[in-house]
Design a protein that fits this description.
8 helices, 25% helix, alpha+beta
Length: 338
């Protein structure tokens, strides 16, 4: 895996997959049994943490409880014996940039979770490390504060130009923050991609299932005509997919479709749509969106999602238990091997 200078890079995966272990290896708290860790071409695999020019923001922030905000932030500069005038200037700049003005004399116990997170971040970046590691720093914050902090983090990272490696199991955070994401599964890198690529073109069942909601339809290859692939589903329904990708006809395949690419309809649509008979099981009002759970004739559950005043602005006319058609454009979806 190679990370670019100045990049906001996320390590994403479920609990226990190895992402924090990887972060600890980069920080120097663990040492690799094999392989190398290079920073700007230099092998740092066996260097102690204090020799790596890397800072780490811990999940629990690890602030000094007996020091106030400004003392916590400037602590690393004092250890490095930075000139007092530069220390004061750099500390003041980061306090201003990270939104801590007016809180300089407060103790950590007098700060909210979001403010403590900012102090921990300021203390890490004021040293101007080559690399900043962040281990799930937003996990202790409530949803609204965490969402606001996401914007602050991206703004700060671009302003400072420091390379960030950010560990999270939260897909929303990674999609919102990252330039690129490494998706990790059971100690292996499943896929490295931009957020858009990872969401729209996952390369495996795990990647497709982990990022957002996904509908999987078991499919068998029935032939190809120009840019259209013919597929058969287990209930003998034939559907089509417009794609130019190469497909091994001997593989068992999944047709993957995001819920927001699906609709339910009272009538069979025109030719450029696929359709399956279904029964509406649940309607779930989500505020900014409406989710539908339908089941096909063979009992397969499928999820459909629409936003605001989109295709389902007449959603109240749909009745649970009634039969409809599950429909989607033939250009939507992609195939992965089972």
């Amino acid at each position: 895996m190679s990370i670019k200078e100045g990049e906001f890079f996320c390590l994403l995966g479920p609990s226990g997959c190895g992402k924090t272990t990887l972060l600890r290896l980069i920080a120097g708290f663990e040492f690799p049994g094999s392989g190398k860790i290079l920073l700007n071409g230099e092998d740092i695999s066996l260097l102690p943490p204090n020799k790596r020019d890397i800072n780490l923001v811990f999940q629990n922030y690890a602030l000094f409880p007996h020091l106030n905000v400004i003392e916590n932030i400037s602590y690393g500069l004092k250890i490095k014996k930075i000139d007092p005038s530069e220390l004061e200037s750099r500390t003041a700049d980061i306090i201003n940039n990270i939104g801590l003005t007016g809180l300089e004399k407060r103790m950590p116990s007098q700060l909210s979770g979001g403010q403590q997170q900012r102090v921990a971040l300021a203390r890490a970046v004021v040293n101007r490390p080559k690399l900043l590691l962040l281990d799930e720093p937003l996990s202790a914050l409530d949803k609204k504060v965490a969402e606001q902090t996401i914007f602050e983090l991206t703004d700060l990272q671009k302003k400072l130009g420091i390379t960030f490696i950010y560990v999270t199991h939260n897909q929303h955070e990674s999609l919102s923050l990252a330039d690129r994401i490494a998706l990790i599964n059971n100690g292996q890198i499943e896929q490295i991609a931009t957020p858009k690529e990872l969401y729209e073109k996952p390369v495996s069942h795990f990647a497709a299932d982990f990022i957002g909601k996904m509908n999987f339809f078991e499919s068998s290859f029935e032939g190809r005509e120009n840019g259209t692939v013919n597929l058969k589903l287990p209930d003998n329904n034939n559907v089509q997919l417009h794609t130019t990708e190469k497909i091994d006809p001997d593989l068992n395949l999944f047709l993957c479709i995001r819920p927001e690419k699906l609709s339910i309809s009272k009538t069979i649509p025109e030719d450029n749509f696929n359709s399956l008979k279904c029964r509406l099981k649940h309607i779930i009002y989500m505020g900014d969106s409406i989710e539908f759970e339908v089941v096909t004739e063979k009992g397969k559950p499928v999820f459909v999602k629409t936003y605001g005043s989109g295709r389902f602005k007449d959603s109240e006319s749909y009745i649970q238990g009634e039969e409809y058609y599950l429909v989607w454009e033939k250009k939507h979806g992609w195939l992965i091997a089972q």
